[in-house]
Structures are given as C-alpha cells and as structure tokens.
Design a protein that fits this description.
This protein has 9 helices and 10 strands. By secondary structure, it is α/β, with parallel strands linked by helices. It has a single domain (3-242), classed as 3-Layer(aba) Sandwich (Rossmann fold). α6 (168-184) links the parallel β7 and β8 (187-192). It is globular. The protein binds adenosine-5'-diphosphate and magnesium ion. Residues 14, 19, 37, 39-45 line the site of adenosine-5'-diphosphate (ADP).
C-alpha cells in the first residue's frame, strides 16, 4: 500500500530532556493509524511535529511528498488538525466557527458557508449549528473542533485524544465520523490512551512509551506476538513490550 506520511528520526527536547526520540514510522494512504501510549509518552509532541506546529530538533517528516521542515505551506494545505485542547470561539455559533476557520484556510465566503453545512452534517450537528458553541456539551464542542479540521478537505486528519472526557453519544459519533472519513479516502492519525478504542478503530497502531515507538503493527499482529490474538488485549501487549501497565 502507498505511503502517505513518513517520519524519520523525529526528535524533540524540552529543557534538555527528550520528549520524543528518534521516532520513525510510516502511515499508509487511507488507513487509520493509531498512536497509543500513556500520558507523557510523547504522542502530542509527535503530532505537533508531523503537522508543522512544532519544528523537530532532528529528523524530518514527508507528508504527501513534502517535507515538514522545508515545505510547511505545502504540508499545511493537505492536513487538518484537531488538537488535544479545544481550539474554537465559544461565543460564536458552530456555523460561524466553521466559516471563520474555512476562510482562514483560504475558502471563499460562499465555499466556506457551503462546506460548513456539509461538515456540520458530517459530525451530526446540523440541527444545532446556529447555537453558540459555549452552550454545547464537551463532546459536541469536540465534534465542532473536528469539523474545523475538515473544512479544507484534508488528505490527512490528525485527531489528538478526541474522546477524552466526553459523553458516549459524542464518542460514537466521533467513531462513525472517523470511519466515514476513511471510507471517503481520508488518511487519519488518531492518538489515544484508550486501548479498546485503538483496537476497534485502527488499521495499524504505533505503540509509544517514553518518547519512543516500541512497536508498529496491526492490532491482531501485535497481539499475536504476545499470545493468542483472540485472548490477548492491547494492555497485555503494552505490558509485554514495556514491562509496565498502560493505565495511569
Ligand atoms: N512545551 C513543553 N515544554 C516542556 N515539556 C513539555 C512540553 N510539551 C510536552 N512536554 C513534556 O514532554 C513529554 C511528552 O509530552 P506529550 O507529547 O504531551 O505526551 P502525550 O501527548 O503522550 O501525553 C512529557 O514529559 C511532557 O511533560
Ligand atoms: Mg497528548
């Protein structure tokens, strides 16, 4: 299968301590790739480097044929980012948030308005799109934030812990959105510290611990390396790989 993203030797230090160290992996076109690891493993720092938010101290990433280090503008045209912390205007309606961020991404007013309606339906919020976002539940706000990341029709969508602290209904909506995006041909990078989520959604998983990737494979293959794939959990895989539990 065709490679869409290739990270090579990614490294980032904070105050002399490596948050991400020599991380290399590929994401194939149209797959859901999970980055799974406990809090502090380096998932968000990795996503930030992959998406041009943070410059690596060493290494590079090729996204859709372009280097994040040398061709940031070309990379940004092709990606959508839903950050771990919500990034939207609580005083604006969902539609106005989407239109605003669509214009920021270079859409005309007319295009942004049409796209906002389509995106809102995609995340299951069309009935409440004109309400101010601060009245929404956390899960609905998260769905608006995913919508913002979709305004420019990204080839690759980054979702950083999209389901933390949200209601089950929104969680299911997010799963459905991610699966629908894959069916449409979007490539997705999904970080989580919930093993069941990674197991259920992801085509392949990179297991991260202490700034490093310790394994990359399909969920079934990761389990097979530890025991009977039908009886093994990703928790057991993590324990096997790192000698400790994934739970906080
Ligand atoms: N801006 C920053 N300044 C200093 N340390 C940071 C910064 N961002 C992340 N870190 C540290 O880097 C490590 C990895 O963090 P992070 O990438 O957020 O992990 P994860 O997303 O897997 O929870 C942690 O030890 C965290 O405290
Ligand atoms: Mg994080």
């Amino acid at each position: 299968m065709e490679t869409y993203l290739e990270a090579e030797g990614l490294t980032k230090y904070f105050d002399g301590v490596a948050a991400v160290e020599d991380v290399s992996f590929v994401i194939r076109r149209k797959e859901i790739f999970g980055l799974l690891g406990p809090n502090g493993a380096g998932k968000t720092t990795t996503i930030r480097m992959l998406s041009t938010v943070l410059a690596p101290d060493a290494g590079d990433v090729c996204v859709g044929g372009h280097s994040v280090v040398r061709e940031g503008d070309e990379v940004r045209k092709r990606i959508g980012i839903c950050p771990q912390e919500l990034a939207l205007y609580p005083e604006l309606s969902a539609v106005d948030n989407l239109v605003f961020f669509g214009r920021m991404a270079g859409l005309s007013g007319r295009e942004a308005t049409a796209r906002a309606r389509a995106v809102l339906a995609g995340v299951g919020l069309e009935a409440r799109g004109n309400e101010v976002v601060k009245k929404y539940s956390g899960g609905m706000q998260r769905r608006v934030n995913i919508g913002i990341a979709l305004m420019n029709r990204p080839e690759l969508l980054f979702l950083d812990e999209p389901t933390v602290g949200i209601d089950p209904q929104s969680r299911n909506h997010i799963f459905e959105t991610v699966l629908a995006l894959r069916a449409e041909g979007t490539t997705v990078l999904y970080t989580t510290h919930y093993m069941e989520e990674a197991d259920r959604l992801c085509d392949r998983i990179g297991v991260m611990d202490r700034g490093r990737i310790v394994a990359v494979d399909t969920p079934a293959e990761l389990k097979r390396q530890v025991g009977d794939p039908d009886q093994t959990t990703l928790e057991e895989v993590f324990l096997h790989l790192t000698g400790r539990s994934l739970r906080d």
